[in-house]
Amino acid sequence: MATKISPLSGFPELLPEQRYVEQQVIDTLRHTFELHGFAGIETRAVEPLDQLLRKGDTSKEVYLLRRLHEESAEGHAGLGLHFDLTVPFARYVLENAGKLEFPFRRYQVQKAWRGERPQEGRYREFTQADIDIIGRDVLPFHHDVEVTRVMVDALNRLDFLPGFRLQVNNRKLIQGFYAGLGITDGDEVMRVVDKLDKLPTERVRSMLVEEAGLDGATADRVLGLATIRATDDSFVAAVRALGVEHELLEEGLAELAELVSSCADLVSDRVRVEADLSIARGLDYYTGTVFETRLDGYESMGSICSGGRYDALASDGRTTYPGVGISLGVSRVVVPLLARTGLTATRRVPSVVVVALTDEGSRPASEAVAHALRARDIACEVAPSPQKFGKQIRFAERRGIPYVWFLSDGGHQVKDIRSGEQVDADPTTWTPPAEDLRPTITSKEQNQ
Amino acid sequence: MATKISPLSGFPELLPEQRYVEQQVIDTLRHTFELHGFAGIETRAVEPLDQLLRKGDTSKEVYLLRRLHEESAEGHAGLGLHFDLTVPFARYVLENAGKLEFPFRRYQVQKAWRGERPQEGRYREFTQADIDIIGRDVLPFHHDVEVTRVMVDALNRLDFLPGFRLQVNNRKLIQGFYAGLGITDGDEVMRVVDKLDKLPTERVRSMLVEEAGLDGATADRVLGLATIRATDDSFVAAVRALGVEHELLEEGLAELAELVSSCADLVSDRVRVEADLSIARGLDYYTGTVFETRLDGYESMGSICSGGRYDALASDGRTTYPGVGISLGVSRVVVPLLARTGLTATRRVPSVVVVALTDEGSRPASEAVAHALRARDIACEVAPSPQKFGKQIRFAERRGIPYVWFLSDGGHQVKDIRSGEQVDADPTTWTPPAEDLRPTITSKEQNQ
């Protein structure tokens, strides 16, 4: 392999001790999702281009595939890499509807690709973890509560990460409020209001008047709605105080109030749930509940966990499969954290023990010790060469492996190289303390 | 989403109960690799095209990337999807050499892509599981033994799959033998001998004479070598009986004999290790040990687990990083097995319990039971609607969930819907039998 090796911008790669952190995040998510009855699936990395381009606003970011010696430059049979896991999942449900049981709960942890400009938290290749519940014809609202609770449960379990603020809203609430105000182009108003997290309120107000054609009083009430926030159902009274009435608004208020109160028992100092009436999820396909999530200390990255209710994403013309889901940007959370906080595994390898090697001829004896330890699920490795024991200990030390096992004619001993304590040990019974068995997660700052 | 949904040839997708089988394979591999001290990494899906095309024979199979609105049709900055995990890993080692500890053991389970014609066991998108050990400057031979033993250990643990026959050989043995016979173009001879598994011996002999320019006696001895097989070191005597002498041949014989005898204690009825002197791994970069593996009953698919020693794959000009590795084609094994044997999970969801719902108003009480069960790592779900209990039981049955939990004023009861047995239960103490806790793997034929 030639030289000239350099990283590709937007395609982050991790060192083994960093990958361990990402793997722990994924394992924790998967464990939580399975506890809640979600089945894991994967979809292929590619979709037909016409499926990928249905959401016009992301079309420019799609990666097309072409085989090297293919005649056409139009892409291999019109295939592109998926840019999220929702569009492929909707296609999977339609393709396999006859073989699935509904309501269908699935989780999916996979890579996705977008050709956009790389920046912190935005990558061209990234891992997402999605949960969705799909019904056939109908999907009761309690499933909106369910996916929220599952994600809050998962985020609570990721206790080595900073805190999360889950912001929830409801499209019916917004649309009903706008309809009650007599606004005809609600989508355009929503698009402008979406800019509140980037532009000053005054600027957004001007845009509502000039671009969306609202009168000043209506614009003020629209902005009044968008500034309401509450961690309980007190937002209902705040909305009512704005004096707008509409059936759809009532429906949205009731749903959002139920969502917030149903999560109250799971909320912690680290993971909060907040009704935030500015959240609208732009041009997406959502029809009810919408989610965004901010990572404490990384608010400038925007939402790292988003989703909502979509009643019409998957339909084969005869049957509609309404769904609700939420998607955590694993890379968006993990990669910036690794870089900024030095989050890392306590060791670079899974091994908890290095079995020392007295001389090359006694390798089978050392291997037998390793074999006995592995039979009891203790990860270990045999020293690569029969160097002086001091060097073998330093070999373990450099990898962060806490124990070294010595064989001698008198019997076996194991040394905790952190404390220096060395005790007699039998490979068929010795067990390391539970906290040493696997690497744990720490930050370099804490370590020093 | 419009209609017109159909599978893409060469991009297999699995139903949840099938994905569970694949996930079990991957989890078992990962667990085994970690027990042996291998650290997990992932590399990006894309590599610069000049890296991917170094192995000329696969160049036609590479998928190029291009962004939708990109000017150039030449591919996005010359990027393509990786077609294996070895080339990216060699690049990763060079890129991160200063941050890694050697010998570096890593495993990597990821998708790869090749644009070749799909057939059973050959897909355009597939999952591979690789282990490799990389040294700096040198890598002693005992690591060849190590990767073999790790993979044999892993295959032994995949006890729901058919048996495996690991075929090992050594390039030094072949090259030394050819050199001892005075053959100058060993690569060409090796290429012809590689056809022995597809063509009759007589045909290969003609090709050796006509295409590779050997005389008849030499061709006979080349074929004599290629037909030697043994499950112990008796192959050494068989090679010696062919009367060829060369230093490199002796080195290869010694290494191969050590490899075969060092695995003797791990060999089982299901997983055998055999010296097969016809194995050469074609045009690959191997320099010593080579592996191929046949899946019992699926021999026509060819090798499903291959690899070997590569002394010169990764080099930055100053330092060389010799390595040895082996790669299991997870999709190549799992996808045909699912199709042919109906291998599947005992249930379609992780849940072991459905908590029944008396009426919609008592959903919080049912959720509280589920919460208590999950707190003790028991996967469960609450029934989606308060249908008659008979229907809720059938809901569980259709998913293969073995238990239904009932709440009543008198207390809680749990029913094993297979036996009909129903007993009093407390959600803070009840635990299902260990064999029910997670789905297990079965085949549809066994089930019926």
Describe the structure.
The structure is a homodimer of 448-residue chains. Chain A has 448 residues and is α+β, with helices and mostly antiparallel strands. The first copy, chain A, has 2 domains: 16-45 and 82-344, Bira Bifunctional Protein, Domain 2 (BirA Bifunctional Protein, domain 2); 353-447, Rossmann fold (3-Layer(aba) Sandwich). Chain A is built from 15 helices and 19 strands. In chain A, the strands form 4 sheets. Chain A has a 9-stranded mixed β-sheet with strand order 1-5-6-12-11-10-7-9-8. The first copy, chain A, has a 5-stranded mixed β-sheet with strand order 15-14-16-17-18, with helices on both faces. Chain A has a two-stranded antiparallel ribbon with strand order 2-4. Chain A is elongated, with a radius of gyration of 27 Å. At the A-B interface, α1, β1, β3, β4 and α3 of A face α1, β1, β3, β4 and α3 of B. β3 of chain A pairs antiparallel with β3 (63-67) of chain B.
DSSP summary: helix tally of chain A? 15
Number of strands of chain A: 19
User: Main β-sheet of chain A, in a few words?
Assistant: 9 strands, mixed
Helix content of chain A: 25-40%
**Termini of chain A, distance in Å?**
37 Å
- Indicate the structural class of chain A: alpha+beta
Q: Which chain pair shows the most residues in contact?
A: A-B, 93 and 93 residues
- Looking at how many chains there are and whether they match, the oligomeric state comes to homodimer
CATH superfamily annotation of the largest domain in chain A: Bira Bifunctional Protein, Domain 2
Taking pLDDT < 50 over at least 5 consecutive residues as the criterion, the unreliable ranges of chain A are: none
The CATH class designation of the largest domain in chain A is Alpha Beta
Radius of gyration of chain A: 27 Å
Strand line-up in the sheet with most strands of chain A: 1-5-6-12-11-10-7-9-8
Predict the CATH topology of the largest domain in chain A: BirA Bifunctional Protein, domain 2
CATH architecture of the largest domain in chain A: 2-Layer Sandwich
Strand content bin of chain A: 15-25%
